[in-house]
């Protein structure tokens, strides 16, 4: 296999600052601790997000100020996770579209948070009016060509992003999923370029098919078990009593799209050793993650996992930090392809 110059490792693609930690923080920290190359690409700066602490409430709605704050939070979080290689998607090489082949000057673009509205228990939907530069309005191929060039240059062993529903429905997450899946296709030379013709910056580099593409998921049974166990844990009860605004969703209510049957799980990562790293990263997100707590009595067992701690987002719902992360091989990528790519462990049903 022609892989000279291949750096390997892991490439994670996420929509906003905090998603790399919330969705894949354990995986990133585990690979970083194993001294494997880890790169994170963030599609936007989360500038439309909600702000949790009252003392920072003035940042909400102030896109530029909030973007600056969230860039700082992301930098801190990546440091906690041990990740040194990061880029914003809009800072990757500018795609050369039809009629501008050979153009070298960079054109300044900014992919911005498209915003979202909570639609129910942990489920998100779009907003009525998109902000200027909204990521969801960026053509998939334009964004994907930037990422495809990076993939051809870095030749990662594994690319990870959200499942098709974006984890919980945020439009930017769904778009990040589509962009990532198109990028791995273009990088492999399987996409035929734009309008059937290859014309992106990736064409300067040899084609590369990523060995494994993963989607972050969680087992439905474990999520429901955690929701039934959480309110009874003394340290969670103390949190709920100290802050009456916090809640725990019903274990029998609707679950987000990341919840999948056990049979859909292809890989599990034991993240118990990196819980402090993940918690440190969560604590970096002062504007958007609250109630970050490590289980003081040690991990609490639930069905199929253990709860190592908790946090709450702007919907004020207490969510578990598990002692493992689960991944599903993307459609078209067989789990067997992961052979030799430890520390991923194939899930045995
Ligand atoms: Zn997000």
Number of helices: 7
The fraction of residues assigned to DSSP E strands is: 15-25%
- Main beta-sheet annotation: 9 strands, mixed
Q: What characteristic shape results from the CA principal axes?
A: globular
Which descriptors would you attach to this protein?
single chain; 349 residues; alpha/beta; Rossmann fold; 2 domains; four-stranded antiparallel β-sheet; 7 helices; 27% helix; globular; binds zinc ion
Give an overview in words.
With 349 residues, the protein is α/β, with parallel strands linked by helices. The protein has 2 domains: 10-216, 3-Layer(aba) Sandwich (Rossmann fold); 219-257 and 268-323, no CATH class. The chain is 27% helix and 20% strand. It contains 7 helices and 15 strands. The chain has helices spanning 19-33, 63-81, 140-154, 171-187, 220-229, 234-242, 275-284; strands at residues 10-14, 38-42, 85-88, 117-120, 123-125, 158-162, 212-219, 259-260, 267-270, 290-294, 300-302, 305-312, 318-322, 324-329, 345-346. The strands form 3 sheets. Strands 1, 2, 3, 6, 7, 8, 9, 14 and 15 form a 9-stranded mixed sheet that branches. The model is unreliable at 1-5, 97-105 and 194-198 (pLDDT under 50). The protein binds zinc ion. Zinc ion binds next to loops.
